[in-house]
Amino acid sequence: MSAHDQIRAMLDQLMGTARNGDDDKITVAFDDQRVCKPFLLGCCQYEVLAATRMDLGECPKIHNLALKADYEAASKDKDYFYDLEAMEQLEAFVADADRKTEQARKRLAETQEELSAEVAQKADKVHELAERIGETLAKAESLGEEGLVDESMKLMEEIDNLRKQKSEAEAEYRQSIPAATYQQQKLRVCEVCCAYLGIHDNDRRLADHFGGKLHLGFIKIRETLKEFQVIAEERRRNRRDSLRNRRAIEVEERERGRRRRSRSKSKEKEKDSRSKRSRSRSKERRDRRRSRSRDRSQ
């Protein structure tokens, strides 16, 4: 990308589609179905894993920084629920990655020499310590690049301790198996990104793996998915609470209506009763007047 293109992209990201006025507007809006909603949220797997061993190619939907800026501005006043759409997409991707990890693990179990439970446990300990060293070394180098020298040095001290533990674990593992078997590269599958890691991998190779774009990209995808799942669960909980409140209000309104109808019926009955009593008294008075009239006429 040329310097001009970089500047243009920065302006698009900052100002959105209307930065050059009506004459240069993009005809597609951010809420168009053709626009990649995970991209608007910064978590499209096509973009996150671009230029890695698991490059997925070009996303079939539109990626445009100006549209992303438009969405970020609009989402301050309205919830578009794009996180739910992104969550579904990431769930499918992560589920597929986990299936591949399980298949790779099964292939290793079929092709690698089977170890006893005790020896396998010792090998796993070597793997775990090696991976911790690789992860910590990658983090220490990242802190050093950011100028946080003291924090980086503290991690390097932790790495020295882990290396001592790894040497002891390797010695225990070496003593528990034949020399020819020890020389074989015992592999395991990275639970995060499905890459193969060897028991004899050096610190540099492991640091490159754990600090690499592929592994960090998978971490970002998995962490983002967890965040979306938490938000989705909160939405479902709020919806359930809203439905319960609505039902409670409906029940209360029905009960009030029932009480009003009951009072209305009581009033009508009372009114009918008063009317009957009034007619009865009127009849009695008429009967008495007729009786007195007959008595006088006699």
UniProtKB/TrEMBL annotation:
The keyword Coiled coil applies. InterPro entries: Luc7-rel. GO terms for cellular component: U1 snRNP. Keywords: Coiled coil. Residues 276-298 have a biased composition (Basic residues). Residues 265-275 have a biased composition (Basic and acidic residues). Belongs to the Luc7 family. GO terms for biological process: mRNA splice site recognition. This is Putative RNA-binding protein Luc7-like 1. The keyword Coiled coil applies. Pfam families: LUC7. Residues 87-172 form a coiled coil. GO terms for molecular function: mRNA binding. Residues 249-298 are annotated as: Disordered.
